Amino acid sequence: MIALSLAEIAEVVGGQTYDIPDPSVQVTGPVVRDSREVRPGSLFAAFAGERADGHDYAQDVVRAGAVAVLASRPVGVPAIVVEDVQTALGALARHVVQRLGATLVALTGSAGKTSTKDLIAQVLRRKAPTVFTPGSLNNEIGLPLTALSATEETRFLVLEMGARGIGHIRYLTGLTPPRIGLVLNVGSAHIGEFGGREQIAQAKGELVEALPEDGAAVLNADDPLVRAMAARTKAKVVLFGESAEADVRAENVRLTDSGQPSFRLHTPSGAADVTMRLYGEHHVSNALAAAAVAHELGMSAEEIATALSEAGSLSRWRMEVTERPDGVTIVNDAYNANPESMRAALRALAAMGRGRRTWAVLGKMAELGDEALAEHDAVGRLAVRLNVSKLVAVGGIEASWLQLGAYNEGSWGEESVHVSDAQAAVDLLRSELRPGDVVLVKASRSVGLESVAQALLETAAEGEVAAR
């Protein structure tokens, strides 16, 4: 964070100081909410959660080097006490962002936010110091913490914004007002909470409504609900996509033999070829979104193409590809799932598995409401149409819908199986995998299917040690 004294912070957040001998002492380290992340000079934000109360760690964090605690009550060590820690954290983030003078890029969408944010960050940091959301910390707490990690050297601040209802993104843009706002897509993620895609579009569009007149709204030309958001902003509109009308577009899209996308990138200032290190054709749209942002910030087509071709995955369990010593390839995409990302992952599996046996180990897609049965059924059917060798549906009723869809699409009695939990999936795969097989693991985060991928990789490691 930029250096601020405890007195300045107390004034910004409207708090009272307790047990602070010298209010001029500065916070020079990061603002953190996890006591394990405290470093000398930190400010520790104490949140009372379901499992633990941060106030109970006040003594420990100060001993570890924290300058003070941002708290909702006195804690016996230097503290700034406020009525609500989350509100105070947001006020502090807003103050720091106003002082920074960095260009804020905010993005939202139903699918691909984190992968696209990682691409944008890797492209922009070639131009100037860039700070970006770690992982998918995109809510009312994670976003301010990211903003507060910026320093005087930061020139670009890339912030992922999530929403679970109308007004959420409006709140986040109030904390960190963006100059460039990117909307990727409007899909089915959280449709059970929103009530429909139109409501999701209403919520996502709050991002472009927050942009200043001298800003830019970067919109997906291939998604009608996103493209319609152009009417909701006074900012310049930049379109990306495969549409001929897009300002930044892709031509000659293809997948390499290993499933990595390659295409010709066209921007208003020129064109260049891109071959990505990431897997799956869905990353073309993500890359075009990143390219549109980078072009708007002054980068050439050649610079952008080089950066996209060299960019990797910065966040765990998102199309994380690992080849075992025995030739089995594990694709761990288990961080989260919705119908759009599930279809994209299956298509990537089909591309990667040309001439090889493919396994789709799939689980529940959460928060789909009344659409849950139809969407799970559709994913099962798609696995058949893509000629996936075997579907392993993991879990309860939603998994049975996946298997039913596969069975009804074709005679898949032997090619699909429903197992009760992750361990049962591991046991099945350990007994049936052969060298050269490709295994995709994907479900909503609550299912915890990353444990399947980890177990299969550990199995290979144990076998290699035993062979020695």
Describe what you observe in this structure.
The chain has helices at residues 6-13, 58-63, 85-100, 113-124, 142-148, 168-175, 191-194, 197-204, 206-209, 224-227, 283-296, 301-310, 339-352, 372-385, 397-409, 422-432, 450-467; strands at residues 4-5, 16-18, 26-27, 31-32, 43-45, 68-71, 79-81, 103-108, 130-132, 156-160, 180-183, 216-220, 236-241, 248-255, 261-267, 270-275, 320-323, 329-332, 358-362, 390-394, 416-419, 438-442. With 468 residues, it is of the alpha/beta class. The protein is globular.
Bulk shape: globular
Structural class: alpha/beta
Number of helices: 17
**What share of the residues lie within helices?**
25-40%
Q: Provide the low-confidence segments as ranges.
A: 464-468
- Rounded average pLDDT: 93
Calculate the terminal CA-CA distance, rounded to whole Å.
49 Å
Number of strands: 22
How is the topology of this model organized?
Layout: E1 4-5, H1 6-13, E2 16-18, E3 26-27, E4 31-32, E5 43-45, H2 58-63, E6 68-71, E7 79-81, H3 85-100, E8 103-108, H4 113-124, E9 130-132, H5 142-148, E10 156-160, H6 168-175, E11 180-183, H7 191-194, H8 197-204, H9 206-209, E12 216-220, H10 224-227, E13 236-241, E14 248-255, E15 261-267, E16 270-275, H11 283-296, H12 301-310, E17 320-323, E18 329-332, H13 339-352, E19 358-362, H14 372-385, E20 390-394, H15 397-409, E21 416-419, H16 422-432, E22 438-442, H17 450-467
Helix pairs in contact: 3-5, 4-11, 11-12, 13-14, 14-15, 16-17
